[in-house]
Amino acid sequence: MWFRRDLRLADNPALHAALEAGFDSIVPVFIHAPHELGAWAPGGAQRVWQHFSLAALDADLEALGSRLVIRHGPTATALDALIEQSGACAVYWNRLYDPNTIARDKQVKRHLEDRDIETVSFNAALLHEPWTVSTRQSTPYKVFTPFWKAIRDEPVRNPLPAPATMPAVWSRIGSEPLSELGLLPDIRWDTGIRETWHPGENGAHARLEAFVADTLSQYGESRERPAQLGTSHLSPHLHFGEIGPRQVVHRVEEWLHEHGDESDRPHANTFLSEIGWREFAHHVLFHFPNTPEEPLDVRFKSFPWAHDDAALKAWQDGRTGIPMVDAGMRELWATGTMHNRLRMTVASFLTKNLRIAWQHGERWFWDTLVDADLANNTLGWQWAAGCGADAAPFFRIFNPARQGERFDADGAYVRRWVPELRDLPNQHIHEPWAAPRKTLDDAGVTLGETYPKPIVDLKASRREALDAFDQIKNS
Ligand code: FAD
To answer: In this structure, are residues 156 and 247 in contact, taking their beta carbons and an 8 Å threshold?
Structure first.
């Protein structure tokens, strides 16, 4: 049983089928082969998560009488060695959908079949695999609403139970220590990630239960309040497959059935449509596998992007002088996550006000997000830059100060992440550059000293972005 990003025991179709097949022995293996994923090997924050998630999976397997065998890649070589040592006659796994993994998996499959080893793969990660959904013209969807309409009422099969026991792994089959994979950083920048999250299957279910009990019945509103715990925070758990979308959908429906009333349904539907966006992102990535690097809207290949390393660095460091942007970027650095409203805001600011190519932002998120996911991140960045599937039109440029006034009216989110502005009154916290001198003095704020002056003028840069778009819009 080859584990990859399906780090769970319940509702794991490959594991379930391997157990049902009645083999004498099953060897659960994780193979560390980041170089096989090319430019999209896990980033720094994901590696921290992966370390703890693998440790959790090992502990869960041990509780059932088994254990996780860890090996270094290349994958085909590692599997060959394991087949020699165990006498295995089959390899079971769950499918993934990003282009580098697909290419690697095809090679591994061919290699094993050449050796007369049976290969069996399953869907654990999606409600509907990308090739099972298409428009009436048999083309892939590029717009979310019809995509979701086509699948949202399809029945979702019940999740599979976790095994009660597992056959032991023979002692002669050795494992490399998890610490040898070098997933944790030498310099301890990951303290905030460790304090914020509980990677692993148990952590995923605890999160889902807390969300269903405390938040689901207000999700439609709470999801827009970055200062609150108003969303599920399931994204890294879903990315690593510590929980699957079927389990999430099933639990939401069960909760509605047992505890919900009429007023809860719209909130549940909004939440389920977010799971739908995740499905859509995987659909788009599978059918347009070059989108992590290239805009889906080809007009954007000739967009006049700016090259400004200092501005990019200020954005990465959360020192742009625009409070909502800085708060989002600092939350990301400290915790490995950022609220969706802020992801949209900082991405619009980078690609439109700074006119820096979306790929730079995509790359930074890849390295810093614990939930960095090639499908969701690509879709999110192309959406924000106006060049992707179902994207926000380019001319829709978020004003970060207005976003703050609307979604962080009492400034709680900005105060948490930009404490040097803490004592500014609500009325000025999202636009300190417009505050009267005395107000700044009273709050102990000196622009350019205690907090940066804005690195761009929001109005002028908006105009320049629209002019730049005019150059390509009819091309
Ligand atoms: P909830 O609101 O509780 O939603 C439940 C689940 O639905 C999420 O866990 C996620 O799996 C899925 N989901 C929600 N929104 C989206 C969306 N817009 N697109 C696809 N799936 C969605 N999400 C990632 O998982 N990984 C990324 O690397 C990522 N990068 C993004 C980059 C940008 C520029 C933008 C605008 C969005 C990005 N998102 C990404 C989507 C979204 O911001 C996160 O999924 C969400 O904030 C995670 O928080 P949550 O689990 O509390 O979400």
So the answer is: no
Active site residue 305: yes
pLDDT score recorded for residue 337: 96
**Residue 181 token pair:** 């994979």
Please write the tens of the pLDDT for every residue from 426-464. Answer: 999 999 999 999 999 999 999 999 999 999 999 999 999
Pocket test for ligand 1, best of 272, 337, 340 (most atoms within 8 A of CB): 340
pLDDT at site 141: 97
Euclidean distance between CA atoms 337 and 339, whole angstroms: 7
| Beta strands across the sheet bearing 69-72 | 2-3, 29-32, 69-72
Residue 338 CA, closest ligand 1 atom number: 47
Q: CA dist 405 to 44, 284, 400, Å?
A: 33, 34, 9
Atom of ligand 1 nearest to the CA of 280: 20
Given a contact cutoff of 8 angstroms between Cβ atoms, the answer to whether 345 and 400 are in contact is yes
Ligand 1 binding pocket, CB closer than 6 Å: 223, 231-235, 238-239, 274-275, 277-278, 281, 340, 343-344, 347, 365, 369, 371-373, 376-377, 379-381, 384
Question: Residues with Cβ < 8 Å from 129, sequence gap 6 or more?
Answer: 95, 97, 123
Peptide bond preceding 245 in cis form (omega within 30 of 0): no
Q: Which residues pair with 451 in a beta bridge?
A: 447
Q: What is the β-pairing status of strands 29-32 and 69-72? A: parallel
- All structural domains of the chain, each given as residue ranges with its CATH number in brackets, are 1-124 (3.40.50.620), 126-157+201-287 (1.25.40.80), 298-470 (1.10.579.10)
Q: Tell the residue number behind the tokens 């400004």, with chain if given.
A: 308
The encoded tokens of residue 436 equal 């009267």
Phi, psi values for residue 122, rounded to 5°: -140, 170
Contact (CB, 8 A) for 134 and 140: yes
